[in-house]
């Protein structure tokens, strides 16, 4: 990668850093001339006239965001996808990524090759290029940081702060699968069938960034963000930044059949669904007049888009049932510092 430098003394028997870059990572830059084949100190980037860059960065740490023994290719793909989810929520079209990786000293070439294969698979799938980054060796846990680059028409990005009183609150896809998948991955939800558990765990291991939805929302939606730290907490962020209050209807939440089965068997799963996070779905608000166009976008992309509530005057988030009765929320979402002693893995 551009200016990839070894920051630690060489470890006997470890893979050669620069040979691995040339073999595994440089090919992922081929579609982007400004990456300079990862042979220079930096990448070069031109922005077309009338377009605006959208940048996002997320980090993932073994034992916090994923299990250390998760498949390396899926770790790499999840790293890409959680970042692309942020871009999708802004309405941006992704085109490039940069990777910073702190690999434990014991990481071998086989693991690195599987990791690079995962990167390559999603670079192809989402038409993006790896244009630079950094690698180091570390005595600590595997720590990965990725920066993703996208483009939107100038001044048209969907911000958290754009919601308007009276807007409907929409959510893409389904809610709670990943958080329930983590519970299943840790041995919970024993009442579920193998197929239900497998579905939920697969959603935990590999989210689906809604990159086809985001750009289509420009001109329709007023505000947008992705759901990564828990629905109620993230709705609260949008409401606060927009100076509004939000009301969420639990009976309208889009749940997959496995999530419905889990909730029917154990009502305490509702707290996990509402606050577990790691959903990587697009949360957005739009005027009711655009509902028809939004449903046409859903039909065109094959991704469900569901109204789950409304924005109004006031502050805070109120969760209600179909009759308007308040629903207690045990856990609104993940906070990395204050929740550090309560949770072990989160988005």
TrEMBL record:
Enzyme type, top EC level: transferase
Sequence ranges assigned to domain PurM-like N-terminal in this UniProt record: 40-152
Lineage, opening ranks: Bacteria, Pseudomonadati, Pseudomonadota, Alphaproteobacteria, Rhodospirillales
Protein name according to UniProt: Thiamine-monophosphate kinase
Molecular functions per Gene Ontology: ATP binding; magnesium ion binding; thiamine-phosphate kinase activity
Superkingdom to which the source organism belongs: Bacteria
Remaining remarks: Reaction mechanism of ThiL seems to utilize a direct, inline transfer of the gamma-phosphate of ATP to TMP rather than a phosphorylated enzyme intermediate.
Listed PANTHER family: THIAMINE-MONOPHOSPHATE KINASE
Gene it is expressed from: thiL
Annotated Mg(2+) 1 binding sites: 58, 134
Catalytic activity annotation: thiamine phosphate + ATP = thiamine diphosphate + ADP
């Amino acid at each position: 990668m551009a200016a990839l430098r070894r920051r630690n003394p060489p470890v006997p028997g470890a893979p050669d850093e620069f040979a691995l870059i040339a073999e595994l990572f440089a090919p992922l830059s081929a579609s982007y001339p400004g990456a300079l084949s990862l042979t220079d100190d930096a990448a070069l980037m031109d922005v077309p006239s009338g377009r605006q860059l959208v940048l996002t960065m997320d980090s993932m740490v073994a034992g916090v965001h994923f299990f250390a023994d998760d498949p390396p290719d899926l770790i790499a793909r999840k790293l890409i996808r959680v970042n692309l989810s942020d871009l999708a929520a802004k309405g941006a079209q992704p085109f490039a990524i940069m990777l910073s990786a702190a690999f434990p000293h014991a990481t071998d070439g086989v693991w690195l090759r599987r990791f690079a294969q995962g990167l390559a698979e999603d670079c192809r799938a989402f038409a993006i290029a790896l244009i630079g980054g950094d690698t180091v060796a570390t005595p600590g846990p595997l720590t990965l940081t990725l920066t993703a680059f996208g483009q939107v028409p100038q001044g048209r990005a969907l911000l958290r702060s754009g919601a308007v009183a009276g807007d409907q609150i929409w959510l893409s896809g389904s809610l709670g699968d990943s958080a329930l998948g983590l519970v299943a991955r840790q041995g919970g939800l024993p009442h579920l069938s193998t197929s239900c558990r497998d579905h939920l765990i697969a959603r935990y291991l590999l989210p689906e960034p809604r990159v086809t939805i985001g750009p289509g929302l420009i001109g329709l939606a007023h505000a947008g963000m992705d759901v990564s730290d828990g629905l109620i907490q993230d709705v609260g962020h949008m409401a606060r930044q927009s100076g509004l209050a939000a009301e969420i209807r639990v009976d309208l939440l889009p749940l997959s059949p496995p999530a419905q089965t889990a909730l029917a068997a154990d009502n305490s799963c509702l707290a996990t669904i509402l606050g577990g996070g790691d959903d990587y779905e697009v949360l957005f608000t739009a005027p009711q007049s655009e509902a028809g166009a939004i449903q046409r976008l859903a039909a065109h992309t094959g991704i469900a888009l569901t109204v789950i509530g409304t924005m109004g005057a006031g502050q805070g988030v109120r969760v209600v049932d179909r009759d308007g009765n308040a629903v207690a929320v045990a856990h609104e979402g993940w906070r990395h510092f204050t929740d550090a002693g309560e949770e072990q893995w989160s988005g």
